[in-house]
Amino acid sequence: MVRYLEENSSLSPPAVTQFNGDRRKAGIALVVIVVIAALAVVALLVAFSYYWYIRNKVRRRFTTERPTESDEPAPPVLSSCHTEAQVFTFKQLQVATSNFSQNNVIGHGGFGSVYKGVLQDGSKVAVKQLDLGSKQGEQEFRVEVDVLSRLHSPYLLALIGYCADHDHRLLVYEYMPNGSLQEHLYSDGSSGTPPKLDWETRMRIALDAARGVEYLHEYVDPPVIHRDFKSSNILLDRNYHAKVSDFGLAKLGSDKVGGHVSTRVLGTQGYVAPEYALTGHLTTKSDVYSYGVVLLELLTGRVPVDMKRPPGQGVLVSWALPQLTDREKLIQIIDPVLEGQFSMKEFMQVAAIAAMCVQPEADYRPLMADVVQSLVPLVKHLRPSSRVIGTPLHHNIVTLQSSSIDSGSSSAAND
């Protein structure tokens, strides 16, 4: 028995070699697996770091690179900037507007009339009385109060206060004596009507409006999407400085880079981005498209939709887009009122910005921050404005958490 064990206790040399080879291969395979796993983890970490780098860069880029006071005129200083909206009684606003006299009507919004008013301290205001029979009007009231009481920029219309007295819903804004951009663009210029706007004024308005939307997109977290940006919602003060108004349809955007929120399609015909109209997917690029339409209005003097025009010219974007990058055809779309007020180079630069903003594919549209930086050189050389000179504007990031602006999700409709 002992002899049998001794004879069979040792393996032959070839068997030992094969056994050692198998162990070596197994060891090498294990090392390879460990290395691959480590590389995968490193790749994930790099990708995650790059994602946050890009996200933070987009948020901070125009804070760190904003032009100094010597580069451009300082922004307008608000005469009445309220950190909290005032609460008015219905009787106070009744007195301020002379019992909502028809003589004081200065506009009609989608959900009510707007009256000129004078408060007890003598300050002029605009009072919007919301339609009590409109469910959407109640929603607009809540959104406007929620948004404008927390967001403050020289390029947004300031909310002074509101009234929620019993069934009454009223909003009180700073008064803008020169009305809306729309009124000036489509005025016939006759006595008693708003004057036509020259090239310099239009470019200043374009820049101010772009800065207003930039603030909503870049300095609010998550970004606020206006959703109804149009020429009638751009108001002008006595010096024709523009402020973005009417936030009743505003929506909180996705806090993810490239993300969207799904919502019922609302807005104004001719200004609504095609991908939003088709899918209900709302992003900040939806506002960029609307801004591009307004820029086309400034260049052409045409309304976004006019089906009385010849075939092919009824929709402004469809008609203008093929001509925006062709110098020979570009001349044909210029508003006749602007003749001789600008160089062709300037017009082509603005037309190129408009063309990028109204691209059918949202990914090809620029950020509003890029639009602002593109417009600044076209406005800097213009004659000095009468705006109050103060310290340069540095917006702070505003974080919105709970809000009546329901941010929703990318998979369900909200409204």
Automatic annotation (TrEMBL):
Q: Which residues form the Protein kinase domain?
A: 100-379
Swiss-Prot/TrEMBL catalytic activity: L-threonyl-[protein] + ATP = O-phospho-L-threonyl-[protein] + ADP + H(+); L-seryl-[protein] + ATP = O-phospho-L-seryl-[protein] + ADP + H(+)
State the PROSITE patterns in the record.
PROTEIN_KINASE_ATP (PS00107), PROTEIN_KINASE_DOM (PS50011), PROTEIN_KINASE_ST (PS00108)
- Gene Ontology MF: a single term: ATP binding
User: How is it placed in the membrane, per its record?
Assistant: Single-pass membrane protein
Cell compartment(s), UniProt: Cell membrane
Name one cellular component (GO) term: plasma membrane
Q: Origin, by domain of life?
A: Eukaryota
Q: What is its EC number?
A: 2.7.11.1
By sequence similarity, the record places it as follows: Belongs to the protein kinase superfamily.
Annotated protein name in UniProt: non-specific serine/threonine protein kinase
